[in-house]
């Protein structure tokens, strides 16, 4: 992907990642820790996690295209290296979200089978269902935290690469020389 409306596509696509990763992480933690939310959100969160996963390589590929068209700096190289660390975290979000949805589906089927057999779900059966849910919740919290920290680090390094030395800490006088960004002017 190259440009959108005259701007490098990376500049626009990163916003999807910056919004989707924390949103997916938050919803994944909520549904993992709160069974009532899991019953309603399991498959929508799994779908959102897959969308999040797809957005990361799109932003990365657009970033690589842009990287070959701007001056290489240490800040840019740091950003590119950190950007490559986002995909495993997004994949982790997707895998855990799909596992949570599958566990929810399995639990529903087990409840239906017990109801059809006329048996109440006894304490032993409930305990067996809680252990995988608790383990998955722990993994969800770790993956969510790691993904949010990583998206923050990548975004911070990108902002530093784009803006360091490109603005004045004090306002310029009226009619002062404009700060150049190196991007072509958009009519």
From TrEMBL:
Residue span(s) of domain DUF2231: 6-166
A Pfam family annotated for this UniProt entry: DUF2231
Keyword Ribonucleoprotein: no
Annotated transmembrane regions: 12-34, 41-59, 86-103, 133-154
Alphabetical list of InterPro entries matching this protein: DUF2231_TM
Keyword Repeat applies: no
Keyword terms of this UniProt record: Membrane, Transmembrane, Transmembrane helix
Annotated protein name in UniProt: DUF2231 domain-containing protein
Natural source organism: Pseudonocardia halophobica
């Amino acid at each position: 992907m190259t440009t959108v409306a005259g701007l490098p596509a990376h500049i626009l696509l990163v916003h999807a990642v910056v919004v989707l990763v924390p949103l997916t992480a938050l919803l994944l933690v909520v549904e993992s820790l709160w069974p009532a939310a899991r019953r309603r959100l399991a498959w929508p969160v799994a779908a959102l996690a897959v969308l999040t996963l797809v957005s990361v390589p799109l932003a990365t590929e657009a970033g690589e295209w842009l990287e070959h068209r701007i001056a290489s700096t240490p800040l840019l190289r740091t950003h590119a290296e950190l950007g490559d660390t986002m995909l495993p975290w997004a994949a982790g979000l997707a895998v855990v979200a799909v596992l949570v949805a599958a566990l929810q589906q399995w639990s529903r089927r087990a409840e239906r089978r017990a109801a059809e057999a006329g048996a109440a779900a006894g304490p032993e059966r409930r305990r067996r269902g809680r252990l995988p849910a608790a383990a998955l919740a722990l993994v969800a919290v770790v993956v969510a935290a790691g993904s949010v920290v990583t998206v923050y680090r990548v975004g911070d390094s990108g902002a530093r690469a784009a803006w360091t030395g490109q603005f004045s800490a004090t306002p310029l006088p009226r009619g002062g020389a404009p700060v150049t960004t190196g991007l072509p002017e958009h009519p």
